[in-house]
Amino acid sequence: MKVLLVSDVECPALWDYYRPERVAGIDLIVSCGDLKREYLEFLVTMSSLPVLYVPGNHDTRYLTAPPEGCDCIDGDVFVYRGVRFAGLGGCKRYSDGKYQYTEKEMTKRVHKLHRRIRKHGGVDVFITHAAMSGFGDAQDLAHRGFDCFQEILDRWHPLYMCHGHVHQSYGWDIPRVVDYNGIPVINAFERYVLDIPER
């Protein structure tokens, strides 16, 4: 299964200069947050592919006008063609905001997600907006990752973790993929194609 990951910055090739062949071979689109509602609606309409998303810290407009035709997986598990996607949106609290959480608040959300994952017998792809602490995050408060995300990886051993929030344009040394005990942790900034092997 080929999954197009998008996050944080609308990709001109997929919007302003969209052509159907740009999504040829893609089975599913997943947003890791902080993208305009109109962009996700464009992708789901023009590609005729399912679009899943978690909200980013700047996606407060989703509260009153969520992206139409797209499925929010924040705090939930979505199964597509046998692949289980679990999601948690938001980032570390750095100001007042709906999609900002303290470590304690996110830990509670992780524990609730455990129950949803258990119900589905596990998770294959863990989708977040914020990174995990020490694995693709940054040092400033707004972009520090969550320690509690390691609970999901340690307990359920998904094939991948995918996040946004940390723009690769912030610096030349921001990695696209880092490894956590054999699990690739992928920064979905702008766009990235994830090829999930058939099982």
* pLDDT averaged over residues: 95
The secondary-structure element order is EEHEEEEEEHEHEEEE
Q: Would you report the number of β strands?
A: 13
Assembly type of the chains comes to: single chain
Tell me the overall shape: globular
What fold name goes in the CATH topology slot?
A: Purple Acid Phosphatase, chain A, domain 2
CATH superfamily: Metallo-dependent phosphatases
Query: Residue share in helices?
Result: 10-25%
Number of helices: 3
Could you tell me how far the N terminus lies from the C terminus, measured between alpha carbons in angstroms?
Answer: 10 Å
Please state the second-level CATH architecture.
4-Layer Sandwich
Can you walk me through this structure?
α3 links the parallel β9 (125-128) and β10 (160-163). The chain is built from three helices and 13 strands. It is globular, with a radius of gyration of 15 Å. α2 runs parallel beside α3 (149-156). A six-stranded mixed β-sheet has the order 5-6-9-10-12-11, covered by helices on one side. It starts with a strand and ends with a strand. The model has no long low-confidence stretch (mean pLDDT 95). It is 18% helix and 26% strand.
